[in-house]
Amino acid sequence: MNYELKPTILMVPGLRDHVSEHWQTLLQQRLPKALSVPPLEHDKLSCAARVAALDAALAKIDGPVILVAHSAGVMITVHWAAQHKREIHGALLAAPADLETPMPAGYPELDTLEQNGWLPIPRKRLPFPSIVGASRNDPLARFERVQDMAQDWGSRLVDLGEVGHLNPASGFGEWPMAETLIRRLVLM
Hints:
It contains 5 helices and 6 strands, in the order βαβαβαββαβα. By secondary structure, the protein is α/β, with parallel strands linked by helices.
């Protein structure tokens, strides 16, 4: 794929930020025009701080952008889209975490979501093309809930099958389908 005249790819990681074996990190290392929203030093659980970090990263990019978000990064993206008007070429929204439903054990940082500005999840149609990748067995979101979010956002839904939360704990380092879905967004 020739990325020279293509959009910049901006990774929007979830709450656990940058994980070296994560598919987003590996993808960023492979693509010549890929960047990532930097990790926060303070207010790591604040939705407003995460949205501001995304906006600051976008302000440094000239030209078209494709957002590639995972988990809570999807929620950061939809909160950002509800508040800002910058043109975005498209977004890949992979394994969105359903922050409105109780989380399984092992995610204590998610117990304070409402007071940190994450809820409710924005359900307005996104102002850019988007693809939502949904897992059939994601412990952080039932498939039907993600299907409803995708419909509300005006996103194309891609059924990823049983891929857990699409993270290293689910067996994903490399996720080759991400490049295929990004290519689709480039052509939109």
